[in-house]
Design goal:
Layout: H1 13-21, H2 31-43, H3 49-59, E1 62-68, E2 75-79, E3 88-93, H4 98-117, H5 119-122, H6 130-144, H7 147-154, H8 161-170, H9 175-184, E4 189-197, E5 203-209, E6 217-218, H10 222-230, E7 234-243, E8 249-261, E9 264-271
Parallel strand pairs: 1-3
Antiparallel strand pairs: 2-3, 4-5, 4-9, 6-7, 7-8, 8-9
Length: about 290
């Protein structure tokens, strides 16, 4: 019997109903597996990224796409009527990098599955569902990065920021999107984070991709300081921790690759991280887009 792959995040009633109604072949399929199956059904055997996007937009009944200046997010999806058959209008923010536009399109189109399968919850006023948003992130990465070719591309690459950048460039996506896909396929077991440099010194967690955003703190900021000062990739092991509402501290051991980027330090942490045989320029990440 196929064992259930544990979802990396907590679920919700909306995601639970989506999974149950998705028609996934196994009764114990995870939400991630259900979303991947739905997307494969919409894309068929199309491999080209642009063609996959165009096909899925048509298959998912996205009738209008508008670009708008001043939109307060990268993209939105609105039903045109009160049923899935009446279609959807997608709005995208103007003047953003192409990789972000593609991710926004892929993310928003994933929301159409929830409107189709759980209309009693979606076609009425509702608050954003964090579990739905996370699943649409996973689905967007799956739509943009086919699993079969990625498994081939990742073979022999060391787990580090340089490899992440190389893969992101190959598939025309952002490093956070690539990390989400690698993790969802079980190819890497890492998280990508950005630590903002405070004006008075020290660092604060500014973005986390591949896991839940929690208030992690770096136990020893000296390594972040060293990465900030030298501007070169740093590899090592250490701890991050967080405090719960009762003041109890939870520690997590990590191996890491650090690199100064923009106004902070980018950290890839997890298992199996190692220095590549030959150094190459690492990524200059901007991690503030919607993920």
């Amino acid at each position: 019997m196929k064992s259930r792959r544990a979802s990396s995040e907590s679920t919700s009633d909306l995601v639970r109903l989506f999974t149950e109604r998705s028609g996934a072949t196994a009764a114990n399929s995870s939400p991630e597996e259900a979303m991947a199956a739905m997307l494969e059904g919409a894309c068929g055997r199309v491999k080209n990224q642009e063609q996959r996007l165009q096909r899925v937009l048509k298959e998912r009944n996205v009738i209008q796409i508008e670009t708008i200046s001043g939109l307060n997010c990268d993209g939105t999806l609105e039903p045109i009527g009160t049923t899935f058959a009446e279609g959807f209008r997608m709005r995208l923010r103007k003047n953003v990098p192409p990789a972000r536009i593609r991710f926004s399109i892929a993310h928003e189109v994933c929301h159409t599955f929830f409107y189709e399968l759980v209309p009693e919850m979606k076609f009425r006023p509702h608050e954003p569902d964090e579990a739905e948003e996370r699943l649409c992130n996973v689905g967007a990465a799956a739509l943009l990065i086919p699993a079969r070719s990625l498994r081939i591309s990742v073979k022999g690459l060391p787990i580090c920021l340089a490899s992440l950048e190389r893969l992101a460039e190959e598939y025309y996506v952002s490093p956070p999107t690539m990390l989400i896909r690698l993790k969802s396929l079980g190819l890497w077991h890492c998280e990508l984070s950005n630590w903002h440099r405070n004006t008075g010194g020290g660092f604060a967690l500014d973005g986390l991709y591949g896991g839940r955003k929690l208030d992690w703190e770096w136990q020893d900021f000296s390594e972040l300081e060293r990465a900030w000062d030298c501007g070169k990739p740093i590899f090592g092991t250490g701890f991050v921790y967080m405090s719960d509402s009762r003041g109890t501290q939870r520690y997590r051991p990590v191996s890491y690759n650090l690199q100064r980027s923009g106004a902070g330090v980018t950290a890839l942490w997890g298992s199996g991280i190692r220095k590549p045989a030959q150094d190459r320029p690492l990524l200059r990440l901007t991690l503030h887009h919607r993920q």
